[in-house]
Design brief:
Blueprint lengths: L2 E2 L1 E4 L5 E4 L7 E2 L10 E3 L24 E5 L12 H14 L4 E5 L2 E2 L12 E5 L6 H13 L3 E4 L5 E3 L27 E2 L4 E3 L5 H8 L1
Parallel strand pairs: 6-7, 7-10
Antiparallel strand pairs: 1-5, 2-3, 4-5, 8-9, 11-13, 12-13
Helix pairs in contact: 1-2
C-alpha cells in the first residue's frame, strides 16, 4: 500500500504535488500537526482483503432509514471506527426495526468540522474511521442483518482545499480543461467550495462511476 502523489508542472513552470483524482484511499501521517494528505495505492494482500459473505438485500417493502455518522456514533470523545460501528451500533439499529442505514460523511474530507460535506477526495473513503476493507466489513455485516446500506455521497461541490483534494487540479486553465467552472460561477461562497463543471466529459464520467 504505497503512498502516491502526482507531480505536475503548472503554468509559469512551477511544480506541485497533488493527490490523484481517482484515489480510493488517502491518509495523513499520524501525529503530524498540519500534515497534508497522501494518496494510498490500496491493494492489500489476499489474506487482508475483505471477502463478501452476504448479498445485498432486496429493497424492503417498508423502508425505514437510520441516518448515521460513523465517526460521531460512539460514546467516547474520539472518532469512532467502522469496526466499532459494525460491532456496537449495527445490532441496536437492527433491533429497533430499521430496514436501511444511511452513512453520512463517507467520502474523504480533510476538514472534519464540515461534517463530511467538504469532500476533498470524492472516490476515497473517510480514513479517520478505518480502511476500505473495514468499511466493506461494516456494509457486509449490515447486509447480513437484512439491512440496505445507503451512502450519503456529495457530488454537487468540492472543497476548495487545493493541497489535499481535487481542487488542486485547477491551475487557472480554461473551463473546457477543468473539473470546475471558472469565475464566480465556479465558487460557492456559502460553502467556500468549488462548483463542478458538468459540461466536461471527465466530470460526467466521475459522476456516473
Amino acid at each position: 500500500n504505497s503512498r502516491v502523489k502526482i507531480r505536475m508542472q503548472a503554468h509559469g513552470d512551477w511544480w506541485c504535488d497533488r493527490v490523484p483524482a481517482w484515489i480510493k484511499y488517502a491518509t495523513i501521517p499520524e501525529g503530524e500537526m498540519g500534515a497534508k494528505y497522501n494518496g494510498v495505492y490500496w491493494d492489500p494482500p489476499r489474506g487482508e482483503k475483505h471477502l463478501w459473505r452476504h448479498r445485498r438485500p432486496s429493497r424492503p417493502a417498508s423502508l425505514r432509514i437510520y441516518e448515521a455518522h460513523v465517526g460521531m456514533s460512539g460514546e467516547d470523545e474520539a472518532v469512532s471506527t467502522y469496526a466499532q460501528f459494525r460491532d456496537d451500533v449495527l445490532p441496536r439499529i437492527k433491533q429497533q426495526g430499521y430496514t436501511a442505514i444511511q452513512l453520512m460523511a463517507i467520502q474523504e474530507h480533510a476538514y472534519y468540522a464540515s461534517f463530511g460535506y467538504h469532500v476533498t477526495n470524492p472516490f476515497a473513503i473517510s480514513s479517520r474511521s478505518g480502511t476500505p476493507e473495514d468499511l466493506k466489513s461494516l456494509i457486509d455485516a449490515a447486509h447480513g442483518m437484512g439491512m440496505v446500506v445507503l451512502l450519503d455521497v456529495v457530488h454537487s461541490h468540492i472543497s476548495s482545499n487545493a493541497d489535499d483534494g481535487l481542487a488542486g487540479f485547477d491551475m487557472g486553465q480554461s473551463q473546457d480543461m477543468s473539473y470546475f467552472r471558472t469565475g464566480e460561477a465556479g465558487y460557492h461562497k456559502q460553502w467556500d467550495s468549488r462548483i463542478l463543471n458538468y459540461g466536461h466529459w471527465e466530470v460526467r464520467r466521475q459522476q456516473q462511476t
